[in-house]
What we know:
Oligomer: single chain
Number of strands: 0
Radius of gyration: 17 Å
Number of helices: 7
Amino acid sequence: MGRTVLATGLATLVLALGACGSDESDSAGEWADSVCSSIGDWRADVQATVEEFRADPASISADSLREATDDTLESTEELVEELRDLGPPDTGSGEEARAEIDELAESLESSRDSVQETLEGSSETVSGLLANLSSITAELQAAASATTQTFERLLALDPGGELAQAFRDEDSCAALQE
């Protein structure tokens, strides 16, 4: 039964994920590509972890659950760093776009910290980790939702403008628009 709960929690996370530089300014296209690539890489990392458990549910152990959560936390930290390294895009709405990215980074950090606290409070057994899986999954779903909401707000900053067009044109952004 514990493996079923885990598989259900991880499947929910995958569904949520599917719904959703420097101080120098970049062109709108480069900036949009950086944002979308970073978010896309994060989603792929988390989804690969989920798929690993789906492919071999018999391999689920306390160590594998903890390792999967640690990998997700590390991937989230990388995403936060990549987003924070971006300067504003060289567009009329560049500063507003940068503010949206800063807000997303803060939200992701908050989710990461919450998952870390939950993980630290879990026992070392599969049942102990499974008991906290719903809390961990909810935080990761919130993180995935935050990426989707930020993307939508970035598109709405100047709907007919250069940045919105760049998000629509960049191949790396296509998955975020589905």
